Amino acid sequence: MKTILECKNLLKRYGKHNALINLDLTLQENTIYGLFGCNGAGKTTLLNMISGNIFPDRGVINVNEKRLNYGDSSKEICYISEKQYYFSGVKVIDLLELAAAFHNRWDWNFANQLLKEFKLNPQQKIGQLSRGMKTILGNTIGLASRAPLTIYDEPEIGLDVLMREKFYRILIDDYSNNPRTILLSTHLIDEVTKVIEHFFIIESGTILLKDAVENICISSHLLTGNRTEIEKFTSDKQVIYQESYGKGMLTVIYDLLTEEDKRRAKIDNISVERLSLQKFFAYLLERRESSGERTENSI
Ligand SMILES: Nc1ncnc2c1ncn2[C@@H]1O[C@H](COP(=O)(O)OP(=O)(O)OP(=O)(O)O)[C@@H](O)[C@H]1O
């Protein structure tokens, strides 16, 4: 598979604070990715950098093997951020025309279909749209651009659950007919688990974990039971989180369990549960928070 985006050793400093440090990220063609991280982890800084809005203090960004230089914004990328400011006096149709002029693969038929589907009036001024409708407008541009790399920063802001489901359904349908690379940065991890194929977790400005969603589904387990039994059981496993209560223990592992492991767990009275990606993420970061592994990245 071809690489569409490569970020190498990115550093971005704001004063003494490193918003990004030693950050490497590679995205392949025709894949949907999730980007997750706590508030202030560096997601928006990274996405702004990829889309050329800010420039790294160090490191390299290549889009389709072409280096992104200072001041460049790649036509291969459509970046939709709900934190972006749209001129309030501009009409919906004017913004779509601007986007259409920039993106070579723009599809007007699809854009008009989306306006109807989302009940967006093309003649309405952006300043008159509700918070959710502004998000829908951004999401519509991202979809109709059909850009080789489409990046959404929190595409769910202001949307009710039905609208979020509708957006993700349309995204998947359109992606299956028009494959491209999509990067979704969101806090609603469970909602995108069915949409994304791979994910990245960013913490304190660097990538903490990357994997296929499928691997998390089969490898993340929550074990509860007697402390001594759990400690024995997990001695050869990758432990993500551990918490004792009385004689009991709760442990999260990131490992495949064999049939023999499952038999042993049953005999030792250890309960085994699969974890959702969102829960796994919460335990992973909770451990780092409580053990002090999570630090302020300053050099
Ligand atoms: N313009 C700026 N000036 C100074 N510090 C900044 C600036 N932009 C971001 N930061 C800092 O960089 C760090 C990363 O911020 P960023 O907005 O990338 O996080 P995020 O992961 O997108 O967070 P959230 O989920 O809350 O949107 C934070 O500590 C933030 O305070």
TrEMBL record:
The keyword ATP-binding applies. Transmembrane segments: none annotated. Pfam families: ABC_tran. Gene3D superfamilies: P-loop containing nucleotide triphosphate hydrolases (3.40.50.300). The keyword ATP-binding applies. Keywords: ATP-binding, Nucleotide-binding, Transport. CDD domains: ABC_DR_subfamily_A. Residues 5-229 form the ABC transporter domain. Signal peptide: none annotated. GO terms for molecular function: ATP binding; ATP hydrolysis activity. This is ABC-2 type transport system ATP-binding protein.
